[in-house]
Design goal:
Elements: H1 3-12, H2 14-27, H3 34-45, H4 61-71, E1 75-77, E2 88-91, E3 93-94, E4 97-101, E5 104-110, E6 117-122, E7 127-132, E8 141-146
Antiparallel strand pairs: 1-8, 2-5, 2-8, 3-4, 5-6, 6-7
Length: 149
Amino acid sequence: MTHLDNVLRVAHDPIMRKRIITRMKQLIGKLPGCATVQSLVYWAAKGKPPETITLAQIWPGTDGFRDARLKAGWKRCTDVALLQPGYVLFSQDKAGRKGAPDHVYLFMAWADESKRIAWIFDNNSANLTKRNLGAGRRTPFAYALYTTS
């Protein structure tokens, strides 16, 4: 089973999502932010039970999560049409903070044929939810990171 298969299994499993969210709430006072959820999903997809994930294994913030994945050899994709389930999506930068993505979330599937509305796993809702990747109330998509292993 590949890492992508495991990400999909973890993100679609309601019991595992609950375990991840419970662990996130335990750690959130020590390290807030959406990267906490993405780090937990990443480690759970690697087969590590969420309850055993330590603060040292959580990347500090969205930038730290991105940098750790790039250092681990993950690839970057900027073409929305090429997104695949399990890709980690990053939004455009925060206002006034060049190189600091505003948000990070997991791409699960397309919700429409135009490839503008996606099903994502987002820490804000702790569930699968739809998101317009190009516009709307939230910061638009900038790039995705993915692993081939």
